[in-house]
Design brief:
The protein has helices at 21-29, 48-58, 73-85, 106-112, 136-153, 169-174, 186-197, 221-239; strands at residues 8-14, 35-41, 62-66, 91-94, 118-122, 131-132, 165-168, 202-206, 209-210. By secondary structure, it is of the alpha/beta class. The protein has one domain (8-239): Spore Coat Polysaccharide Biosynthesis Protein SpsA, Chain A (Alpha-Beta Complex). The strands form 2 sheets. Strands 3-2-1-4-7-5-8 form a 7-stranded mixed beta sheet, with helices on both faces. It has a two-stranded parallel sheet with strand order 6-9. GO terms for molecular function: dolichyl-phosphate beta-D-mannosyltransferase activity.
Amino acid sequence: MINQDARFLVVIPTFNEADNISRIVPKVLEQDLRIEVLVVDDDSPDGTGRLADDLSGQFERIHVLHRSGKQGIGPAYLEGFQWGLERNYTLFFEMDADFSHRPDAIPRFIKKAAAFDVVLGSRYVEGRVTVIKWPMRRLLVSYFGSRYAQFVTRLPVRDATGGFNCWHRKVLEDLDFSRIESNGYTFQIELKLRAWRKGFTLTEIPIVFEERESGESKMSKKIVREAIWKLWKLRALDLVGRL
């Protein structure tokens, strides 16, 4: 059971999300009065950081971290998590800014977190693929990429690369952030793998993932290349007990 006095932090990394940030943040806050939002902006040229500051001035439950340059999604989440740990939040959420992750799913994460240490939003669970508006090529790359990650790492989840997740404070406290090397989408796999290997309980809930409404996707060939070799490095570290 999650206490009524618990505090939840939704960490939203941003880079050029001016079309979305002013819409997504209020929708997130509507889901539960215990929710606060931390926008981690990588010095977006389109002014996302300034818009986030404006929101922070309007709502006391909105906070903003400004970082210099485009440093990547992995470091953004780690910096956001560290910020939240220092301020005693109970649950931590990872969430995209572009409405690919639907805010109204958050209450289901909170409910499930009463029984599990980590709750993962899955696009490939219960025998279904719940992705909307993706071209077939991208869908196949994502689906088989997750299966490939599962095969290499032995991670017992269907959607290893998913980025809509909920973490109990104790999980993040027990992870050594300085040892997490991945950026890009391999970061999602590494974080889950390290938590699982430490004995924390993971579960998946089905979510609907919809292609972004505005802006450009952050997926690139560089991210895919990183994922391919990084997975085997994680597997090797795991085999020798150095993960």
